[in-house]
Amino acid sequence: MNPRLLSIEPSLIRALHAKRKPDSIDLGLGEPTLLPQQRFLEAATRWASEFGTKYTVNAGDAATREKIAAHYAYPGMSEARNVCLTTGSQEAVFITIKTMLDPATDELLVVEPAFPAYVKMAQLEGVPTRRVQMREEHLYRYDIDAVVAAIGPKTRLIAIGSPGNPTGRVLTRSDAQRLAKALGERPGPPVWVLHDEIYRELTYIDGPGYVAEFYPHTIVANSLSKSNALTGMRIGWVMAPVPAIDALVLTHSWVTATASAFGQRVAYEIFSEPGALTEQSQWYRKQREGVMSALDDSGLQYVEPDGAFYACVRLPNGGDSIAAAHTLVDHRGVVAIPGRIFGETLEGWLRLSWVAPLPAFREGLRRIADLTSS
Amino acid sequence: MNPRLLSIEPSLIRALHAKRKPDSIDLGLGEPTLLPQQRFLEAATRWASEFGTKYTVNAGDAATREKIAAHYAYPGMSEARNVCLTTGSQEAVFITIKTMLDPATDELLVVEPAFPAYVKMAQLEGVPTRRVQMREEHLYRYDIDAVVAAIGPKTRLIAIGSPGNPTGRVLTRSDAQRLAKALGERPGPPVWVLHDEIYRELTYIDGPGYVAEFYPHTIVANSLSKSNALTGMRIGWVMAPVPAIDALVLTHSWVTATASAFGQRVAYEIFSEPGALTEQSQWYRKQREGVMSALDDSGLQYVEPDGAFYACVRLPNGGDSIAAAHTLVDHRGVVAIPGRIFGETLEGWLRLSWVAPLPAFREGLRRIADLTSS
Q1: Strand B302-303 to strand B310-314: parallel, antiparallel, or no bridges (unpaired)?
Q2: B35, part of any domain
Q3: Are residue A204 and residue A351 in the same domain, yes or no?
Q4: Which label site among A150, A190, A325, B109 has the fewest CB atoms less than 10 Å from its CB?
Q5: A2–B102: do the CB atoms touch at under 8 Å?
Q6: What is the C-alpha to C-alpha distance for residues B226 and B203, in angstroms, rounded to an integer?
Q7: Contacts of residue B54 in chain A, CB cutoff 8 Å?
């Protein structure tokens, strides 16, 4: 058996969810509670009645890729050939790490707090990782100087999520420009940036920054999972300049061959209807208002979400977030994700998703605030 | 960049398809020409209108897995926990090679002629391969003695497709029993068998053999792609005994997280309706009768297909099958796949798929028979 597999720590998120009781308040959810826009599934079903659901080329249906590329219109990656449709953004990130790094010589730099999968995928591929911690005293705002200072001689890829999971922090336009400038000025082989934009349509601040607008060595991962409540459709994509995209498509061709042609058609329909990609964003904006009010009332210290649908709150006494999460699920009927798993800098904090109804969110906060020791 | 990626030969099948002209006779197709059973897509769409398309657990929806496991009822893998739903059988095979073999110490044995992806996936994972050739003089019938004799000290997994792509050869029950007996009697760590059953529902001989019925160290890959004309739905699965299945699910969880929940629901519907899995098999049986008659009339030497939807034919003068395939697509308007890419033993042969209309198949055979030199 592959020994690297055994070296990866099992998912604590899944372990906590497995302990959930039917009446638990679930603030651990990583997916929308809205239903998807049914009309797009129906359109894809009608399309399949005429054309079936056949293999597409490995990168995916060209018309769908063209629409996606044109929608984002990033410099150097605005054509169909710059897009590869994937099984969710999970496969997009996986093939990026697998393709862009040589395990023998290269290293991945992860900007933490971060989605734990980046590090675990690197472990699966035998790629060494380095981590840079955004700081609690900055309430986890992105610190470009710290990111650049953390680049080592072997660093060839930086993984950064913005809007970020778990903090909801968003790179500003100035952050993206400064990162591009610093990386562009480095001598030697380029350091690539993987900008995970999966929460892009759920951004609540003005002037968010997209690294691909300023830096040519950028790979963008995204999907319809969060924007359109389609987590289970498994339609994501990776965008990159030529020739990086060709290498990504090659890896993808051996891993899964193609993304679902049915799901690709759903994507085609969504990108064909102006506004469909952001139709559900309004719900999140409104929900966030109630969330902010509940957070203010809770007395807990929190990170104001610039994007995504999470709020990080500090445990009343800080401390061991994993123990606190177990106490919460076992004895207080609340599922919350310990900050520690997203990076050591988030120890003492919990990640709460706020897609559950607001009264449940408020009650969950109350129970967390009641934890006098963790 | 990952240097292993660059060491993999590009797909010649794709290169030949790219040269196809609008009026070419396409005998290169690797997918059904039937439409899928629309009622199952419609049922899944109705289901999504009520429940959305959310993440399932990594292995896939438990009710769907239970139906699949119960349908095949292989010893030691007949429960939901023995099944992991994947993005087509491509991901099923990929995670099997990635999970079951340690690139530092293990080796994959491929029974050729074989689907080229087995070797290419192993290359991508850095796993050494050994190949064993079924013989032209046996018309590529499975030769269990040859397979067992080819096992080396580092061989830990044998990949075998039955019904096979490209030859359509099928393991008999006696073959499966003899393989199980020989492997069971070997001292030392077990040699696993990956039985790729993707063409299982398209079997035309009596008494086909399934390795999993006789040998506990078997992993089965399958999908709905060929049986139900759902190549583009990307729903496959891998079945294995505990604890191998747990390791496979872990790899799958990092590669793609889950298979499409929509596609999983389509599978649930198909496995819920008796006969739905084999409803399209009748079309292939009937088509095969016409194919056999056309092959007899062609004067070409051929491998009678025991299963799948391919016929291998020998070039009139044998010889360089890759050059012949280029000649056919460039100058004779026929797409056919050179035998060489499936293993050196199939040099001098072509793989023809017979899902195209019979008159086109007959005309394609005529043009191939006309090749007096290749």
Answers
A1: antiparallel
A2: no
A3: no
A4: A190
A5: yes
A6: 12
A7: 31, 231-232
pTM: 0.97
Q: Is B373 on the interface with A (CB under 8 A)?
A: no
Query: Which among B121, B254, B94 is positioned nearest to A94, based on CA atoms?
Result: B254
ipTM higher than the 0.95 cut: yes
Same domain, B18 and B95: no
Angle, helices A244-255 vs A88-100, to 10°: value is: 120
Q: Does B208 touch chain A (CB under 8 A)?
A: no
User: Residue B209 is part of which domain span?
Assistant: 40-272
Per DSSP, B341 falls in state G
CA distance A98 to B256: 13
Q: What string of DSSP letters covers A238-253?
A: EE--TTHHHHHHHHHH
CA-nearest of B108, B102, B104, B213 to B150 is B108
Q: Do A53 and B38 touch (CB under 8 A)?
A: no
* Residue A374 clears pLDDT 60, i.e. is over it: no
**Is residue B8 less than 8 Å (CB to CB) from chain A?**
yes
Question: Is there a single domain that holds both residue B268 and residue B323?
Answer: no
Domains contained in chain A, number = 2
Distance, CA of B132 to CA of B223 (rounded, Å): 26
* DSSP β-ladder status, A310-314 and B349-353: unpaired
Percent of chain A with pLDDT strictly greater than 70: 99
Tell whether the model's pLDDT for residue A218 goes beyond 70.
Answer: yes
Tell me: do B259 and B365 sit in the same domain. no
The CA-atom distances, in angstroms, between A56 and each of A140, A216, B31, B266 are: 42, 28, 11, 19
10 Å CB burial of residue B276 (0-12, 13-18, 19+) is middle
Q: What is the pLDDT of residue B14?
A: 83
Residues B174, B162: contact at Cβ < 8 Å?
no
Within a 10 A sphere around the Cβ of B125, how many other Cβ atoms?
19
- Rounded to a whole number of angstroms, the distance from the CA of B140 to the nearest CA of chain A is 26
pLDDT < 50 positions in chain B: 373-374
Is residue A374 a part of any domain in this protein? no
**Same domain, residue pair B144 and B185:** yes
Residues in chain A with CB shorter than 8 Å from the CB of B12 are: none
Contact list, A257 vs chain B (CB under 8 Å)? 87-88, 90, 234
Are B14 and B148 in a shared domain? no
